[in-house]
Fold:
Amino acid sequence: MSKLFNIKEDRSLFPEKNEHGKIDIDLSSHKYLKMWHGPQHPGITGNMSLEITLLGDEVMDCETHVGYLHRGFEKLMERRKYIQCFPIVCRVSVPEPDFNEYCFAAAMEELAGIEIPETAKWLRTLVLEMARLASYLMWIGGQAGAFGQGIIGQWTNYLRDSMLDRFEELTGGRVYHMYIIPGGVRGLLPAGFKQRMEENLKFIEQMMQDVDKVMFNNAVFKKRSVDMGIIEKDWIYKFGITGPNARAAGIPLDVRKDNPYLAYPELDFETITASHSDIYNRADLRRKDLLLSIDLIRQIMAKMPDGGEIRAETPNVLHWKVPKGETYSKAECTRGEYGYYMVADGTEYPRRINVRGPSYTHAVSLLEKMIINCNLADIAGLMVSLHTYPPEIER
Amino acid sequence: MKEIINKIEKLYPISDFKQQNDKTALLTVEQDKAVDLLIYMQKFEGFKHLAILTAVDWIENNQFQLSYIINNPELKMDLILRVFIDREKAEMTSIHNLWEQAATYQRELKEMFGINFPNSPRVDKPFILEGWDGLPPYRRDFDTKKYSEDTYFPREGRTKNNPVEYMKQKLYPDE
Structure:
């Protein structure tokens, strides 16, 4: 397929580079145009802007600008008790807040030496997979929309909304759930939840067949995405690339497999990889990952205990002094490795919390490299294919 | 992990080794040998992935702690490498040649903690804050409350209540 659509010449040879491997840009020559792409634009969930230099409609140079969403989360958390950090952590990444909640709670439990009950483990895994599914559904709409297929966005956002109904049923919240708390989770599954979830999953599977026909088999989408925005295999560790962006290049990086947490060791799944990380393959890999999530939710609901303890005994959360120490807890979110580095100094307040969002590496150093020689009209598609959320960059 | 530690403790001045859990270990290394150790770990021990580079402000000891979290994808191990640097002369060797994304982390650390990384690309350019010339805001001695009181002003028509007094008045007005 790549041969069929490979009609582009090697643009990376134009224009010529100097001995430092850079292009000499002389703005006074009137050959180049400097423009801002963003902060509000179709390529990303949130606000982030690119300062791009164009030659015709081709990008010659780019610099990422962030800071439009900076609320100083990490500093705020240093001034709050551990439990008061929970309304903050979920806002670090809006479409999938549960990974933040899990990583924060897991780091706290590890430092405090708390083991969570078996049922809570399964419920946490369920919520994380539901968040993954909802986030992927939102992403597919974005990727299709960036290449002019607005209808896919309407379909998949409808599907995401149906997942948010399940979240509302389970947690009481649609976007921010605050369901995972230190020591366990907040509640058991409501009556009839499994059946409604199964109906929901069937509906998503059915609609995904339509998405497959209209988006992934669409000639326009293929022409614009095949061989576009390639991530080389040897960039993976050099740029700190994780998640589907790395897996599409053939490196099976998946925290669920590499560093199994919660109930993942008991689930039967294989890490999905591809051999050529261009926009099309990354999109296809995410579609497969979405279907894997559906399978995992089914496995979780079949294997999980029906009742039992959901919360371990913890000290009074308002006076909880977490013992001195430091740790790094991580989970696999839709975009890659999500991590919380927590330093406790033995008081009621965290000493330092640092959030590792995958967008931090993908949207700055990697994007600035990949965007060179990209057509102005393809920038949005390229940015969506990296799947970035700017609040993670400027926590 | 223990084998690697046995090997590197003969080569580098390391201390405070701690196995945090079966997948994570902690280690402290002297400042002048830290980058050497990172190069060794990356090239020879397979710690190819840099997950985090961040700082902790230990103002009471007049020190910054730089934490490099590196990962070995084969062994599936994380190593938190701690380096303590002087808070008054906050400067560290850049590692942007080892990992490209380190330049972004270092740029952020320069802005938020005032830790300098000479020769790191664009390290002096503002990253998140624009036109900031005060104390780097993530330092412990930066007072967020004072900053907001100095920078912003209270909106008209807003009153402040002591919650204890206010609720007492509201619930038991006769007492």
